[in-house]
From TrEMBL:
Organism: Anaerotignum propionicum DSM 1682
Residue stretches making up the RNA polymerase sigma-70 ECF-like HTH domain: 41-125
Name the UniProt record assigns to this protein: ECF sigma factor
Domain of life: Bacteria
A Pfam family recorded for this sequence: Sigma70_ECF
Length: 136
């Protein structure tokens, strides 16, 4: 039984070529894979549309008023002022731990000190921020 595949030549014309069973199976596998990828892309494109619609709706629920944004800015400014009132070592260690995500061990190794000293510095800043939070 002869097997044929359709290919496109250099002029863009489709031609049928007689091939062996192995070559036919390769072309058939590729055709199925392309069809599978196309269907998957169609499915996910639809899912992305739905997800973006939901995300937009949830974002619209969370939009803050001008007053709320002004209060948030003031709270942030107060927090920055509290952090600035700490020593440069405390500021640096707090930044490395809480903002950049370094562990106490990593910071201690960088600064050639004990983990306990790093933890104490970070905890001091956190304590001051909690005091600020409780006073608001």
């Amino acid at each position: 039984m002869p097997f044929y595949v359709t290919i496109t030549n250099l002029q863009g014309e489709e031609i049928k070529v007689k091939v062996s069973v192995e070559i036919f199976e390769l072309f058939e596998e590729e055709r199925k894979e392309i069809a599978r990828l196309r269907k998957e892309k169609e499915r996910h494109a639809f899912d992305e549309d739905v997800e973006s619609d939901i995300a937009g709706y949830l974002h619209s629920l969370r939009t803050t008023s001008l007053e709320e944004r002004a209060m948030q800015r003031q709270e942030l400014k107060s927090a920055v002022d509290v952090i600035k009132s700490c020593t440069p070592v405390q500021q640096r260690r707090f930044y490395l731990n809480r903002i950049l995500g370094y562990s106490f061990t990593e910071i201690a190794a960088k600064e050639h000190c004990s983990e306990r000293a790093v933890k104490y510095s970070v905890d001091t800043v956190i304590k001051k921020l909690e005091e600020l939070k409780n006073s608001l």
